[in-house]
Amino acid sequence: MAKALILGGATGLLGQALTANLHNNGWQTETLGRCDGDLLDMDFLKARLDAAKADVVFNTVAWTQVDDAEDHPDDAMLVNRTLPDALARSLKQIGAGHLVQFSTDFVFSGPHDAPWTEEDAPNPTSVYGITKLAGEQAVQDVLPERSAIIRSAWLFGPGRKNFVTTILAACKRRDTVTVVHDQFGCPTYTYDLAAWSRKLAEKRKTGIWHAVNGGRATWCDLAAEAIALTSGPCRLEPITSDMWPQKAKRPINSVLATAKLAHFLGTPPRPWPQALRDYLFSHSEELPGK
Ligand SMILES: NC(=O)c1ccc[n+]([C@@H]2O[C@H](COP(=O)([O-])OP(=O)(O)OC[C@H]3O[C@@H](n4cnc5c(N)ncnc54)[C@H](OP(=O)(O)O)[C@@H]3O)[C@@H](O)[C@H]2O)c1
Q: Tell me, what's the pLDDT at 288?
């Protein structure tokens, strides 16, 4: 039985989905998070990796508050670069174990006419994107032969607040919600991302992988679909990014190409609206107002 150590597996949005998927598919799973100790203490981290003897280490831990990162670049760098770098160095020293590091579409910035492929040069504009790219590069520099970088985007799923639950909660409180309609990306279900990540890990795939659901959307499209599927009367007002100033600059187009993943899976990732339906109908007890 393969063993996985999942950093962030007990509390993170993706971490929880990944832990469940691995467990349900016959893996032995162990999680590691803030409640177990200081992950940024390198001696503690190395000791836990030594003891776990995991075949695959999945790192879902990240500083994911995109706007807060602008005010705390050093802290974001510690979590998003120093931690994956330490993981890669420890596994190299141990001489065993494959590392799966998760990353983001925010390593790109638009405009760009086509979906971004794994070969396209990243050019992040936010502190979050810069620190996540630095984490990718550290892992690839230290452990290229035993690591994979999985870039995903716009995650929704059970277990933790996400954009979809935020919109549905706003709809319970207000008649109208305003949502940005000029940024394009790929909404992605954590359960689908977890399944693809497990399959890539089972084959010990290396290199960079773009892993998102099919199709593209604006935040407004995603909100509209979620509202239509759940909550009834709530008006949506599309606005431009200029009308919703945020600290961190977001890419106008961060749509990721999935041809490489589709070739590996033997089928394209399913479209995001289908995945969203699955999420909303399978986890209705968790949704705001229920
Ligand atoms: N969410 C998205 O839309 C999105 C999009 C693209 C890529 N990604 C990437 O996907 C991965 C997973 O994201 P996610 O949305 O699942 O993240 P998340 O829900 O915010 O979870 C982040 C995890 O990191 C842990 N963490 C953060 N700082 C920590 C620290 N200093 N020490 C220990 N643990 C710490 C959190 O622990 P606590 O629960 O204790 O805080 C939590 O378990 C990340 O690499 C992220 O960059 C996410």
A: 83
Which residue shows structure tokens 């799966």? 100
Q: SS3 of 159, please?
A: coil
Amino acid found at 28 = Q
CATH of domain 3-156+188-214+256-270: 3.40.50.720
Q: Which atom of ligand 1 is nearest to the CA of 65?
A: 20
Nearest ligand 1 atom to alpha carbon 102: 45
Residue 77's nearest CA partner among 47, 40, 105 is 40
Cα(289) to ligand 1 centroid in Å equals 25
- Give yes or no for residue 247 CB within 6 A of ligand 1: no
Helices 13-24, 190-202: inter-axial angle, 10-degree rounding: 50
**For the segment 215-245, what is each residue's pLDDT rounded down to a tens digit?**
999 999 999 999 999 977 899 999 999 998 8
> Is the shortest distance between the CB of 186 and ligand 1 below 6 Å?
no
What residue's CA is closest to ligand 1, atom 45? 102
pLDDT at position 220, please?
97
Flag residues of the chain having pLDDT under 50: 290
The predicted pLDDT at position 232 comes to 72
Looking at residue 289, its pLDDT comes to 67
CA nearest neighbour of 128 among 155, 110, 148, 108: 108
Cα of 148 to ligand 1 centre, how many Å?
Answer: 17
Report yes or no: 182 and 244 within 8 Å, Cβ to Cβ.
Answer: no
Q: Verify whether residue 279 is a known catalytic residue.
A: no
Distance CA 179, CA 158 (A): 22
pLDDT at 147: 98
Q: How far apart are CA 207 and CA 118, in angstroms?
A: 9
Torsion of CA 265, 266, 269, 270, to 10 degrees: -130
